[in-house]
Specification:
The structure is a single chain. This protein has 2 domains: 4-138, Collagenase ColT, N-terminal domain (Glutaredoxin); 166-271, no CATH class. 50% of the residues lie in helices and 11% in strands. The chain is built from 12 helices and 7 strands. It has helices spanning 4-17, 41-58, 79-88, 124-138, 144-155, 173-184, 191-196, 199-204, 208-221, 225-235, 239-246, 250-265; strands spanning 26-29, 33-37, 71-78, 100-103, 108-114, 159-160, 166-167.
Length: 285
């Protein structure tokens, strides 16, 4: 029996395929992803291999429940094509503000390769949005700080090494610069404040996603990320769950995080324009 979700995804695909602004889609199907893209076929193989490589590294290590029905990936050559694509599919979203969009109700991700200004995206956007889907499958009523922070840490600037392993904890100069600018303006390092924010308030807090990224980066640096995620699934998102996981009170966590940001995160800003962290795959140019 075909479920309603499958029908919705089917019509999303054909809505984009029939859009005059879009090139014909090429496809790659795996057990976890149905990829529809306007890039060349050689690039499609690279997309498929990187998506499956990312998935194999984080499931079940960080997510015990994997993808039981393939997630649809709509990957466009450029920003304008992507905007036309979601418009044709009747979806809401503005690629002037986002590089990738995850639509949980239809299990679909829309993103693109080339910015209108000519900048090329790395793998981070796709990995980030896939992580949102896995979080939805594994965590109930997750707050925005949790979903955005974990997706940013696991996905952004991550690389699949030649041996197939995921290289986590790579420099993220974009997030580091946002944190640096806000700390200079007096932003306190306070996990309790962040965790107390409503989803709406968190989205309006400019450094929010970068601060939550730094928290997950710190937890990972302590060797506690798997334990923390397991505890969250069992006990919820309260500050006390993190305190119990790392065996520190909140005030001590704040001090340790402040030191980590100063010593490990802020120095990443100097790499912003070096090209060291673009994550560009030559097959996708």
């Amino acid at each position: 029996m075909i479920c309603v979700r499958e029908i919705k995804v089917f019509f999303l695909f054909w809505a984009c395929l029939c859009c005059s602004a879009c090139s014909p889609f090429k496809t790659e199907f795996t057990s976890h992803f149905h990829i529809y893209s306007t890039v060349n076929q050689e690039s499609m193989v690279s997309i498929k291999d990187n998506l499956e490589g990312y998935y194999a590294n984080i499931v079940p290590r960080y997510f015990p429940k994997g993808i039981d029905y393939p997630l649809s990936i709509f990957y466009f050559k450029n920003q304008t094509e992507a905007q036309n694509g979601i418009k044709a599919a009747g979806l809401d979203g503005d690629f002037a503000y986002y590089r990738g969009l995850y639509f949980g109700d239809v299990r679909a991700i829309y993103t693109y390769r080339m910015e209108n200004n000519g900048e090329v995206q790395g793998w981070g956007t796709l990995f980030h949005e896939i992580t949102h889907h896995l979080i939805t499958l594994n965590y109930r009523n997750q707050p925005r700080w949790f979903s955005e922070g974990l997706s940013a840490f696991l996905g952004e600037y991550s690389r699949i090494n030649k041996d197939g392993r995921l290289n986590l904890g790579r420099p993220n100069p974009w997030r580091a610069e946002i944190l640096n600018d806000n700390i200079k303006k007096g932003m306190p390092i306070d996990i309790g404040h962040m965790m107390s924010l409503s989803n709406e308030a968190f989205d309006k807090w400019q450094p929010g996603k970068s601060f939550s990224w730094s928290l997950f980066f710190w937890i990972y640096s302590q060797g506690k990320l798997e334990a923390y995620l397991r505890n969250v699934r069992q006990k919820g998102y309260g500050v006390n769950v993190l305190e119990d996981t790392v065996a520190m009170p909140a005030a001590e966590i704040n001090r340790a995080l402040d030191l980590f940001i100063s010593n490990a995160v802020i120095p990443m800003v100097s790499r912003k324009n070096t090209g060291m962290n673009k994550g560009v795959d030559p097959f996708l140019l």
